[in-house]
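Bit of a strange request maybe. I'm writing a small parser for structure token strings and I need a real example to test against, not something I typed by hand. Could someone generate the tokens for this chain?
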Amino acid sequence: MQVKTYIGNSTKEVMEAIKAELGADAVILSSREQEKDGRRVYEITAGAERPDQSAKQMNNATQAPTASNIPSGWDDWHKEWDRLKDHIYSLMQPAMHWDRLSPHQRIALEYLQREGVESNVIVECYKTLISPKAAELSMLKVLASLVPVRSFSFVNYPQRIHIMVGPYGSGKTSTALRMAFLRKQERPQHNIAFINADSMRGNGRLVLRHWADLSGFPYFEAPDKDAMYAALSACKEVNCIFIDMQGLAKNEKLDDKLRVLGLDTVQANVHLTLSPHYSYLKEILRRYQNPFPTSICWTKLDEAEHYAELINVAVWTGLPISALSFGAELQGTLAPSEEAQIWRLILKHQLPKG
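Reply from user aminoacidic:
Good idea to test on real output. This should exercise your parser:
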């Protein structure tokens, strides 16, 4: 975050200077009036996030960056900065003018706070709600602007290759099967194949192979680059390929894993499966950064007590939610995401219908 103090003859003058230099998303950290040379001046300290240049380079590059490009201690610095930001946002909350919100807005924001939405996200919600445009929109429309949605469908995700990633136990294998069934229902004429890059783990391997055989989907195992190239070559006539990736070990990163398997140069969508149960989501998100278009599939929603993490992750990353998964069965337990579904889930704890 870039932090700077501005001084001017009026609040309006200072705010215009902040907006011109730091942008409309600048966060006001402190403000005060003081006498200087016999006149009253206004001093405001503001901060603004700067885009992660390494992420930009990763998105624009033909190959993902190697570990040697990352400065020593980079992850530790990020963790320390996250803690500092949490403290700053916690200090800012008592200074928020709740009376500027309508009763409905205040009730909704207080509810989200009780549900576990993080302090920095609450501040972002507050900034959105007090903006002039918010008065012209419904409460749900304002909140929906914070949570991008891109429903899983052929129109939104036309790529042939869909890479399923996520921590062990997040349900990525069953989510891959459910998404394949959904694609087959939407496009009956499409041929679908599975490539299992997680073939060393027995349970997921057996389940994926079993259901692929029952459904008539070609199935391949590809634990290394040569096997992956052979599987992709065998799937030249297939319309849609789902690749089930391994979970990452503690110090592994997804872009490195993709490069090892030779997947760093293919055209693909990555679907990251997450459960609201996880308490270390920021660390997961860092390790699963990659150069491909990515969506979030929320899983095991029927087992969760609250759904604040759907908002937290959306605000942290800007990644769209593509699907919502719930229940143990493979049929009828995954719904392509819709704004109304997501907010019924968050505000009413009402699960979607498959």
